[in-house]
Amino acid sequence: MTGFALSLFEGAKPPNPSSQSIRLKHKLFRGINQFWNQIIIRNLPYTACVYQVRRGPQMIESYDFGRIVIDGKQYGSDVLVFPHRVMSRWWRKEGHRLHINDLEEVVKEGGEVLIVGTGYSGLMDVLTETKESMRREGFELIIRPTREACETYNNLVKSGKKVIAALHLTC
Q1: What average pLDDT does the chain have?
Q2: 123: number of CA atoms within 13 Å, CB side?
Q3: CB 58 within 8 A of CB 85
Q4: Nearest Cα to 105, choosing from 120, 85, 122, 123?
Q5: In this structure, which topology does domain 60-167 adopt according to CATH?
Q6: Where would you tag: which of 72, 120, 138, 148 has the fewest CB atoms within 10 A of its CB?
Q7: How far apart are the C-alpha atoms of 170 and 70, rounded to whole Å?
Q8: Is 141 helix (H, G, I), strand (E, B) or coil?
Q9: Which pLDDT does position 55 carry in this prediction?
């Protein structure tokens, strides 16, 4: 389910939604995690932007080698799937080895479960120190080939857990 949020700010151009330095005059919906379809209304004392936002956890609709569909949007690169946003073009220090530094955004977000999809054939290696570090951060860690990881993610989301998925889409 999606909803809409309205932000008002001074000036004729909308700020970069990811910029932390912007000063919004009014924010009518709190907790915006993802900025999708931006609609701009001009010629007002303030410029207004309406953002379509996700109001429920992300669901993975399909996965095949090199391609994943999450809530109707297709991605062709590795992704981090958070409860209310997707970080596409997720890149790791080493393509087929998962280091703890590759999961900084996951640690910042926090959660109950981290599901790692190791690729179509399961070739990505999760380093021992990465496993240990994520467990120390309080995550239950599930490591599976990406097809199984997607199914596990959807099942855990439906059960109400705060789940994050780190998905390698190829290999």
Answers
A1: 79
A2: 9
A3: yes
A4: 85
A5: Hypothetical Protein Mth938; Chain: A, (3.40.1230)
A6: 72
A7: 16
A8: strand
A9: 61
